[in-house]
Amino acid sequence: MARSTTVHVCSACAHETPRWAGQCPGCGEWNTLVEEARSAGRRGGRGGGALGGTARGGAAVAPVRLGAVEATEVARLPTAIGELDRVLGGGIVPGSLVLIGGSPGIGKSTLTTMAVANLTGAGRRTLYVSAEESPAQIKLRAERLRGAALDIPVIAETDLGAVLATLERERPDVCVIDSVQTLHAAELTGAPGSVGQVREVAGEIMRVAKQHRIAVLLVGHVTKEGALAGPRVLEHLVDCVLQFEGERERTYRTLRALKNRFGSTNEAGVFEMRGDGLVEVLDASARFVGEATHAPGSVVLCAMEGSRPLLVEVQALVSPAQELVPPRRVVSGIDRNRLALVLAVLARHGGVATGSADVFVNVVGGVRVDEPGADLAVALAVASAARGVALRGGAATVGDGRDGGALRGRGAGMGDGRDGGAPDLFAAGEGDGADGPAPGPPLACFGELGLTGELRTVAHPERRIAEAAKFGLSTIVGPDARTLRAALRAALPGRRRQQAA
Ligand code: TYD
Ligand code: MG
């Protein structure tokens, strides 16, 4: 390898300096200098590399009209894990770089091991590079998994140079790098996992992988903030970014495509972590709503996981905050800011004020729903919890009119809702005893809340409704209700009774 030096490059203004400094001498930004390798006489155009020189002596290239480009449909390498293949867009594309991100312990090593085990069993050349675990530890995991996991060739190596040399010699079809943050480029002084290191490691691996058409599954840890470490430096470099999420203590995991050059980014797969590896969950809705309680504070959300509808139970708990302490907003499975928005709209346009209460919202089963269509479910769950009444389920209306898909079930006009936004949280007559779980299937809903209290349509209403109907949920409140107020009126049965009490 050519003699290499390192420089520190400002990620804001590209100013270069030989030594690291807290503040960029070029633009004055703080903490923007990132160490980069600069080897004399290395091939040009490496990702993030120098653009410095002018005359590079390259030969001119003749442009080709797009229509004349031969587009051969590449044969993909199916991992035989249906959910993973679907999220990838039909299997691994040869020579592609796939980044799999997720918090520690979520199952990234398990998923990648299972995928290469299947590929190994199918006769593909594979390689598992672990920079985190010893071969003995990898074997322990492999023994829990079925298939050809014990046939996977592994190396435990943290030095980037050694890994690159091994890749050049072995030239596998598919290789796992576990993880990009623990590999170490010797020519950089930065610690493994630092931005400079991560960029160098990924860039070099990509160079070798593209050269030999090696498909690489790059494992990456996410930071506390949930971003893939190395401030997005990898996301533009790789072909696919998959995010593996869920809560470690819970068994369900979702795999989402955040970026996919070879497929849709709308896809998501659901897995369950078992004693013998990850198992695909094909009947996810049944699992999640099978236990839906129909108690105050509970509602079923017709969510979309990519192109697939998914029913999940959203629960809320509203309880008086302690004095002198700011009220708490605790969420699991939804975005905190989204809850803040929903609570504000609820208070302003729905007459349910929770300003002085602790509010907890949980999506049951450790699922994450990251779509605006979840707003209404959060609003209804909170309203139901605040009032202490179960939402109106669908026992009496099973099989009821399939018209338009908005407001299923009876008496959408019950309660006039003209309370002018007066906070009636913890209204008199809250008695939970009388308001325990109501009989029959729970209420299902979906829709985005606008800031003016309107309900907005979301993608695929028919599929959401069909999924709910499949599970016997016949009372569905959707965007056709038009306003939050109307939705609350339709969903909350005991309003008038309560106000009278
Ligand atoms: P792992 O794949 O090592 O997570 P990551 O690489 O993302 O850090 O596995 C995470 C957890 O899953 C670990 O605590 C052990 C557990 N596990 C199972 O429950 N069943 C299994 O079959 C395996 C292999 C792991
Ligand atoms: Mg791991």
UniProtKB/TrEMBL annotation:
Similarity comment: family membership: Belongs to the RecA family. RadA subfamily.
Protein's name according to its UniProt entry: DNA repair protein RadA
Pfam families, A to Z: AAA_25 (PF13481), Zn_ribbon_LapB (PF18073)
Physiological role: DNA-dependent ATPase involved in processing of recombination intermediates, plays a role in repairing DNA breaks. Stimulates the branch migration of RecA-mediated strand transfer reactions, allowing the 3' invading strand to extend heteroduplex DNA faster. Binds ssDNA in the presence of ADP but not other nucleotides, has ATPase activity that is stimulated by ssDNA and various branched DNA structures, but inhibited by SSB. Does not have RecA's homology-searching function. Plays a role in repairing double-strand DNA breaks, probably involving stabilizing or processing branched DNA or blocked replication forks.
Region (Lon-protease-like): 358-501
The record's note on its domains: The middle region has homology to RecA with ATPase motifs including the RadA KNRFG motif, while the C-terminus is homologous to Lon protease.
GO cellular component term of the entry, any: cytosol
GO-annotated biological processes: recombinational repair
InterPro entries given in the database record: AAA+_ATPase, DNA_repair_RadA, P-loop_NTPase, RecA_ATP-bd, Ribosomal_Su5_D2-typ_SF, Rubredoxin_2
UniProtKB keywords: ATP-binding, DNA damage, DNA repair, DNA-binding, Hydrolase, Metal-binding, Nucleotide-binding, Stress response, Zinc, Zinc-finger
Residue stretches of biased makeup (Gly residues): 406-415
Organism whose genome encodes this protein: Conexibacter arvalis
Residue span(s) of domain RecA family profile: 73-222
Gene transcribed to yield this protein: radA
Binding locations of ATP: 102-109
One function term, GO molecular function aspect: ATP binding
Chain spans, region Disordered: 402-440
Motif (RadA KNRFG motif): 259-263
SMART domains tied to this protein: AAA
Gene3D superfamilies in alphabetical order: P-loop containing nucleotide triphosphate hydrolases
SUPFAM superfamilies: P-loop containing nucleoside triphosphate hydrolases, Ribosomal protein S5 domain 2-like
